[in-house]
Each structure stands twice: as C-alpha cells, then as structure tokens.
Design a protein that fits this description.
seven-stranded mixed beta sheet; five-stranded antiparallel beta sheet; 3 helices; 19 strands; elongated
C-alpha cells in the first residue's frame, strides 16, 4: 500500500470561486448582491446603493489610464488577510467556463495592465476594505475586448482530506471587461468536426448513439455570445436531426478555443449522410460539416467476408492460369506476356546491292582435226 503524499505548493489546487460566481441577483438595488462570493468573503466593484455594478465594465483608448476601486468584504467572525492581484481571463477548454490565470502564471493583458494600490490587505471580521486600482492601456494594445479579474487570494493552505494529501488555496475575484478603442471584428469559426458511432452488434437489438465533437473558435477581437445549430441529413437528403445546442459557453472571449461535444441518441444504424454545425453570433455566422457512414459491425463483417470469398472464387475459377502474375512465373514461361504481341512482326526488307559483273575472258580458237597438215 502506497503512503499518502503531499503535493508541492507549485501544484496546489486553486479553488477560484470566481467561477466567477453564480451571481446572486436577489436584490438588484444592493451592490453586494452582485458580488463574487464563496461564503467567507466577497469581491465586487465599489459602488453606492444606487449605482450597483455586477462587474467592472470599462472602456479606454490606447495609451490612456482608467482608475476605479474594488471592495473586499469579510463575512466571517475573524480577520482575514488576502493577496490582491489582477489576472487575465480565458475560457476553459473542456466546457468554455470563465476562468483566470493564477498569480504564478504570466499575465499579458488585463492582468499586466491593472495594478491595485495595495497588494495585501487585512479585512476585519464582518468588515470591508476598498482598494483603488489603475489600469493603463499600452500604446500597442490590440483594439477590442480584453477580459480579466481582480483577485482576493487567501494564501493559507487548507489541508485536504482523503488518502492523498492535497492543499487547497481559495480565491474570489471580480470580473473586468475592458473595451479598447479601435476597429472591432466579430468572427467565429467551427473547426475539427468529428462524429463517432456506438452501435449494437446486431442491427435492431439495441439503441444506436453517436457523439458529435467540434471546436468553437473566436477568431475576432470581441467577446461573443455564440449559438450553435446541429443538422444531420441521411441518404437522399432526408433530415435526421435538426436542433439548437445548449451545451455551449455563455461567452467566448477573443482568441479562445473550446472543444465541445453533443450526444445524438437514436442515431441511424444503417445510413450514409452529413452532419453540419452552424455557429452564429452578432455580426458573424460560420458552418462546418463532416460525412458519416453508419454500418453495424455485423453487416461490415459480412461484407468483408463476402468480398474475400468472391476473390477466392475468382482465383480458383481461373485455374491458376497465370493469375496473379508474378515476375518469377513469367520467367518460367518464357518471355513476359507484355512482349507476346510482338511475335510475327516482320522486319522491313532491305534490297541487297547488285553483285558486280564477272570479267569475260577471250576464248581461244580451236582448230578442227581436219585442218591439220
């Protein structure tokens, strides 16, 4: 049995109840009703009772500075000390939730531009502390939306429970939505659409399901409230499915990608078609598709067996007459078959040159016997 061990502080779990707070909107007139809250302390924009703000919603031009205040409230009966810092926000890859970087991560936008006047505060029991902060937008910042949060981190490590010791640090933050002046471009893309089937071995003996996965990518520079619609068509254009999806993030920050999936219960067990996902938001609309072939394993096995059996029958029917052709077999038979068509091809005849005439010799005249003396 392995002994329990403690994780180092560098991998301590942050319980950022910033998640960023299922905000309690029970009393709109009260500023604390909008606070990010974990039950022990809350963080929210400073405001009067008549001008409550749920988040910091700021706008600034390049090279300018914004000043505001954040309030931290202690709900316990003992003083609490916190580290105050600004952090960049991002969408979690799994479900697109709003999350922020930890204090040890590098900050590039709001987390680098915002600075509270005090980095550490102690809040008395059932009391509040308000801290000013400044946010300076660099001259070379990108126009459009930038998101982050002001975090109040309790640096104490709560001991975990269970066989594995795990320390937990808790933090609460107030969101910051900053719009930097300049051109804005809303753009949304649907990427890497995939479909996987889960079918019974024997058709008709169970329910067929499918999982459609895709990536939603904000390619513009403004925060989007995306909507996604799923449509599936079978053979001959039959509509198999058409519905709007609900498992999507409420807001997709600029430049962020989220990998999502959607179950399809009652998917066809034998069909061939396409799945199309259409994502839209204010000022943008984009679609992406993928094809699918629904084929039960039993049917696929029968098709493969039939194909292999047919190939064997064809080979046997030819009686081994040179099929399939191999180079060794061609050498044993003589010339390879591609050269057989050249047999019987006559070469063009060339006339032989005439032979020179033989020289004639003079004949000697012979005398007859009667002419002799």
């Amino acid at each position: 049995m392995r002994k329990p061990y403690a994780l180092p502080l560098s991998v301590l779990l942050y319980s950022l109840s910033l998640l960023l707070a299922p905000l309690v909107l029970l009393a709109p007139a009260a500023s604390r009703a909008y606070a990010a809250d974990n039950g022990s302390w809350s963080v929210y924009p400073f405001a009067t009772q008549l001008s409550a703000r749920p988040y910091f919603i700021l706008s600034a031009d390049l090279g300018t500075t914004v000043r505001d205040k954040v309030t931290v409230t202690n709900k316990t009966g003992a003083p609490l000390s916190f580290r105050l810092y600004a952090a960049d926000a991002y969408n979690t890859v799994r479900d697109g939730g709003f999350a922020v970087r930890t204090a040890k991560e590098r900050q590039r936008e709001v987390g680098a531009w915002a600075r509270p006047a005090r980095s550490r505060v102690t809040v008395p029991a059932h009391g509040s502390v308000t801290v000013p902060f400044t946010l300076r937008v660099p001259e070379r910042a990108e126009p459009g939306d930038h998101a982050g949060a002001l975090i109040a981190l309790d640096e104490r490590v709560d001991p975990g429970s269970g066989a594995v010791a795990m320390g937990v640090q808790r933090a609460v933050g107030a969101r910051i939505y900053l719009r930097v002046g300049g051109p804005t471009v809303p753009a949304l893309a649907v990427e890497k659409v995939r479909i996987s089937h889960h079918q019974p071995l024997v058709p008709g003996t169970g329910t067929s399901t499918a999982t459609i996965s895709y990536t939603l990518h904000n390619t513009g520079n403004v925060t989007l409230d995306p909507r996604v619609r799923l449509r599936a068509e079978g053979l001959f254009g039959r509509t198999l499915l058409s519905r709007g999806l609900t498992r999507i993030p409420a807001e997709l920050l600029p430049g962020q990608r989220v990998r999502l999936s959607e179950p399809w219960r009652g998917a066809p067990q034998l069909d061939w078609g396409d799945v199309t996902l259409t994502a839209s938001a204010q000022g943008t609309r984009q679609s992406a598709s993928t094809s699918f072939l629904a084929l039960p394993w039993l049917v696929l096995g029968l098709v493969l067996a039939a194909a292999i059996g047919g190939a064997v029958v064809v080979v046997r029917a030819r009686g081994g007459r040179g099929w399939p052709w191999t180079p060794g077999a061609a050498r044993r038979r003589g010339r390879p078959w591609p050269l057989r068509g050249r047999r019987g091809r006559a070469r063009p005849s060339v006339p032989a040159p005439p032979s020179p005439p033989e020289p004639s010799t003079p004949s000697r005249r012979r005398s007859s016997p009667s002419a002799r003396p």
